[in-house]
Amino acid sequence: MRLLLALLVLIAAAAPALPASAGVPFDPFGSVAVDTPEDARVPGGARFTDRTGAPVDLAEVVAGDVPVVLAPVYYDCPNICTVSTASLVQSLSLLTALEPGTDYRVVFFSFDPREGPGKAREALAGLKERRFDYPGLDQARFLSGPPESIEAVTRALGYRYAWDEEIQQYSHANAFAVLTPDGRVSRWINAISVEPTDLRLAIVEAGNGAVGDVSDFLLMLCYQYDPTTGKYGPIIDVSMKAAAGITLAVLFGFIGLALWREHRNRNRRAP
Questions:
Q1: Residues 75 and 120 in one domain
Q2: What is the secondary structure of the chain as a DSSP string?
Q3: Domain residues for 251?
Q4: Are residues 263 and 138 in the same domain?
Q5: Per the structure, how many domains does the chain have?
Q6: What residues contact 214, with CB distance under 8 A and at least 6 apart?
Q7: Are strands 161-164 and 141-143 parallel, antiparallel or unpaired?
Q8: Whether residue 244 sits in one domain with residue 185
Q9: Do residue 70 and residue 163 come from a single domain?
Q10: pTM for the whole thing?
Q11: Tens-digit pLDDT profile for the chain (271 aa)?
């Protein structure tokens, strides 16, 4: 029992504190960034329009009992946005252990005020044309909104973008947020190439115990979030230190056993 407690202490001492997402810049491109304020959350009163033309409050859309994948997008982006959005949906389709609508929800919103419900419908249609085997696509919300709502949300979340007059396009970070059920930013994930493991871990972490199974929580022990890359990576330091601690404990155990046997044999030989 004492050996087990010693091992647990070694592992706990080896584990580094997980870095927080708040206040740490994440800049996939180098020209624009995500710089999340402390306790960032979706503000109330930001009015948007869904793809059917119905008005919605974004804070009410993301509120609920499960985490939300919130993706700031540029529906008409001629560059990498379409690829990153497709990468997100493809990764979502691989999360077979998590059920869309039950374990998490997905919301896209455009930061281009010129885009309306028509562009939102085109974005959904474009994703459907790729024939992703993702049952949650029709459940996903595709929103557009006026400048004041877009500004309120992006400023609150720390998502920065800018209009480039020279090329007549938006310059923006390729990243999406994973929100807790109460609308707070849990993590920003690099959207240039979305890894299913990153997505799974971010959703489970944002769920704070309400989402995922035992295998997910075991996986969380082996990975940590890196805010400089927007990805999760294996906790190599912890694994190596834990392995070293176990090795030392076993070694000391063998030494102790050998000394005990030697002492016992010496006592037996004594007259």
A1: yes
A2: -HHHHHHHHHHHHHPPPPPPSTT--B-SSSSS-B-PPTT-BPPTT-EEE-TTS-EEEHHHHH-SSS-EEEEEE-TT-SSSHHHHHHHHHHHHHT-TTS-BTTTBEEEEEES-TT--HHHHHHHHHHHHHTT---TTTTTSEEEB--HHHHHHHHHHHTB-EEEETTTTEEEE--EEEEE-TTSBEEEEEE-SS--HHHHHHHHHHHHTTSS--HHHHHHHHHEEEETTTTEEEE-HHHHHHHHHHHHHHHHHHHHHHHHHHHHHHHHHH--
A3: 2-8+237-269
A4: no
A5: 2
A6: none
A7: unpaired
A8: no
A9: yes
A10: 0.73
A11: 444 333 333 333 344 443 444 444 444 444 467 888 888 999 999 999 999 999 999 999 999 999 999 999 999 888 788 888 999 999 999 998 899 999 999 999 999 999 999 999 999 999 999 888 898 999 999 999 999 999 999 999 999 888 888 888 888 888 899 999 999 999 998 887 788 888 999 999 998 876 766 666 666 677 777 777 787 778 765 555 555 567 767 776 777 776 766 666 666 555 5
Q: Which two tokens stand for residue 223?
A: 């990975």
